[in-house]
Each structure stands twice: as structure tokens, then as C-alpha cells.
What does this fold into?
Amino acid sequence: MESTHKAKVAAACRQLLRPIVRLLLKAGMNWKEFAELSKTAFVEVATREFGIRGRPTNASKVALMTGINRHEVRRQQEQLASTQLPAPAYMGAAQRVLSGWHQDPDYLDEQGAPQLLPESGPALSFHDLCRRYAGDMPASALLREFRRVGAVEQEVDGRLRAKMRSYIQARLDPEKILRAGSVLEDLGNTVVFDLTAPATARLRFERRAENASIDLRDVPEFQDFLEREGMALLERVDEWLSNHERNDPAAPGTRVRLGVGVYHLQDEPARGAQR
It folds into this structure.
């Protein structure tokens, strides 16, 4: 029974992670960086939400719950207590190559800038740079990727110029990334609350309206409809919230953030589908 329960939780988690992994890959974060981030999140939630009478959970209990050893738990707790975010623990092959190109004295010119490099050949070539910093990642694959994201450009004489110091697959607005995280957190908190709430508790509203047989040509019309009707709903909700807003001093624990989110639900069409 327990194995079936965990299997279903794992399947749900995999579904949840797909859009997150999509964002991470577009932002240039690899799985090792995410694994470190995941470890920190496990320690954070176990420490803050599973203590007794509101106190933080001790390291031994956190270690037991998470499977992370106590030494690492304490390190993560100290890291969480810091006001600064930790530097990424790992860099992918692409980032290592670009960093080496900008930092390795062998590959810098007299002004300290990355030298122009021929694509192939012995030392002081792009292939040699990749041999030094990319491990078993083929130089040809890295060059294709660098060209795709604009990190490298080819001069008229064929030599390669480094255009970026950091490897980022897509130029994503940092503020939009933070907002995306807060949206996913709000939705996730609602779903988890409803799954774990006591039988006597009133569940939070979470509903979907969907249909799997809509013509692709009707998507723009649906978008217009949703923007119109969804905004009308949000305006009514905003009015209700404004009418119930309290501006007078209040005791701690008597105010709560309250609201609703509306989002467009759409799967990607199957490959080969007519548009």
C-alpha cells in the first residue's frame, strides 16, 4: 500500500517538475544545480514546518525526515539563515568553456580579453579550449549551441569570437522569473492544502474547465474570451478584497494574504497536427 502511495506521489511530482525543468533548462541551470537547490528546499520546509509548537525542527529530526545527514542539514540551515543566496555549486560544460575563455591566461590577449580562436587545431583553438574545460562534451556540439544562443560569432577570417561570459539559453526577465515562481508556489500551496487538509476542513477553491477536442483554429478566440471574462472576474474579486481591506493596526496573526489566480490551460498539439 505504501509503495503504491509513493508511486502516485512520484508520478504527480514528475508532472509538476516538467514545466519547472523547462524553465530551468531555458535559464541555463543543469540538474546538479537543481539537485543542490532541491536539497536546500527539503531542509527549509522540514525545518520551518515540522517543528513542535511553532519552533524550528531540530537537525536530527530534519535528517530523519529528509534522508540528509545531520552535518549537511546544519550546513543547509546555516546557508538558509544567511541573507545571501549561495553561489551555484556546479557549472555545466558550456559555462566552464566560456569561463575558461574569459579567465585562462593562455586564452587572453594583452588587454585581458578573450582571444579570437580558430575552430580546430592544437593549443589556442576552440577545440583545445573544449578539451580543457568541457570534459567529454564534443566541441562541435558546444559550438552549435553557442552559435544558437549568440554566445559565439564567427569572424570573416573564420576565427571565433566570444560574445558572452555566461551561458544562458534564453534571455529571461529576472522579475518575470520571480513572478513565475510565486505563481507556481501559490497554486502548489492550494493543491497541497486540499490534499492534506483534515476531513472537517473547508477546502480551498481549485477547479478546471477543459475539453480535449477543440479545433486549433479556435485558440485565438478562446484567448480573447478568457482575457475578457477572466479579467471581469478578477476585477470583481479585487473589488471584494478592497472592500474588506483593513487599514487599522492589528495584532500579529490576524491578517492574511487572500486572492485568486486565473490561468490559461493548454497542451501542446501533437507533432504533425495541422495548424
